[in-house]
Design goal:
By secondary structure, this protein is an alpha/beta fold. 45% of the residues lie in helices and 16% in strands. The strands form two sheets. It has a seven-stranded mixed β-sheet with strand order 1-9-8-2-5-3-4. A two-stranded antiparallel ribbon has the order 6-7. A hairpin with a 2-residue loop joins strand 6 and strand 7. It is globular, with a radius of gyration of 19 Å.
Amino acid sequence: MKPHNLKKSWQQEKEKSNYFWLQIILWLANNLGRPLTRLFLLPITLYYMLFSRSIRHSSKNYWLIFDKKYSILRSFKQIFYFSATILDRVYFLQDKFNLFNIETCGVQQALDLIKKNKSCIFLGSHLGSFDILRSMSTGDKIPISLKISMDENHNEKMTTMLNVINSNISKMIIKSSNSLENIFIMKKLLDESVNIAFLNDRIISKTDKNYQTKFLGNKCYFPTKNIKLAIALKKPVIFFVAVYAGDNNYKIFFIPLLLTGEQQKLPKTKKIKLLCSLYVQELEQKVKEYPYNWFNFYDFWH
């Protein structure tokens, strides 16, 4: 079977979060507890399978690209994992980390790099759960001062619910913008030892400014602007991902994307390509290790 051509960017896709289901999940999570609430994830997953054509087809495309082996059960498990991470956001934002077994890898290396350089640029993706890092960095679990650049308008319903749970989350957000003013804001934060995180796997539009490569064997594009910012401000780049490993298990990885001494002397354009390549390599490796955590439910390989 060949992958479907969905012909839609992530911006054209409607928000996947359904406000009715979000309210249901929030009420159940706070009144029944996690074990009982997880039972409701099955009908929620079935709802997405039956009534969200874009999720269903993008999941099918993903598996056909991943290893050419599509099955309804694989898609169901992928969407179930997506639903599970939405539920767990409720607990993360309320600092209920005792409910989970969270394994971290590379934290000390990241902290050492931050200490040496005052601050770093963190590059994440829509693989796994972004909210673990966001929640854990607000306390003492992962002592990293962090701001997150993101487009809140694209997931307005989800953002509204998250702010209801924890109003402090909104204070961590920097609105995603290419304006000069926004760049100055980020430079000031980095100079003040505040790290900045980006979700680096989605492009705004297909232009020459994007990095074209093969991902899981198929052509796609990745943004370069965040890596350009890191190079311009002379800040190290750290790849990070927090994957759901089933039941109550999560794994968080921090992987510095470092250039060698000789590579540092290369022209800016070559350094950008090298760092983009390192980012894509790490992301691809983690997708292969945790394939059910891929939550880009749109035509990623467009």
